[in-house]
Amino acid sequence: MAPTSASEDSLPVLKILLIGPSGAGKSALLLRYCEDQFDPESTTATIGIDFKMKKLAVRGKGYRLNIFDTAGQERFRTLSTSYYRGAHGVILVYDISNKKSFASMEKWVDEARLNANPEAVLYFVGTKLDKVAAGGRAVSFEEGKAFAEAQGAAGFCEVSSKTRENVKRPFVEVVDQIVQKPQLIAGAAPSAKAVNFDMGSLPSNPCSC
Question: Whole-model pTM?
Answer without folding.
Answer: 0.81
